[in-house]
């Protein structure tokens, strides 16, 4: 789920950068890219994966 959110943020950052849209400092393409990288790092670390295999017993 975090990887999907990161992909959406990367796409929005790309659109802002490609269209040369003037935004305020909070929604700058670099800031969105850094938030996307943070979400991608959390996804790779295993946080927010959703289903967990722990607790399954036969």
Order of helices and strands: HH
Q: How large is the share of residues in beta strands?
A: under 5%
Number of helices: 2
What count of domains describes the coordinates?
Answer: 1
Shape: elongated
What's the total number of strands? 0
Given as residue ranges, the uncertain stretches (5+ residues, pLDDT < 50) are: none
Radius of gyration using CA atoms only: 15 Å
Task: Compute the separation of the termini in Å.
Answer: 28 Å
Name the helicity range. Answer: 55-70%
Main sheet characteristics: none
Structural class: mainly alpha
Chain-averaged pLDDT = 79
Keywords: Membrane, Transmembrane, Transmembrane helix
Transmembrane segments: 34-53
Organism: Streptomyces zingiberis
Protein name: DUF4383 domain-containing protein
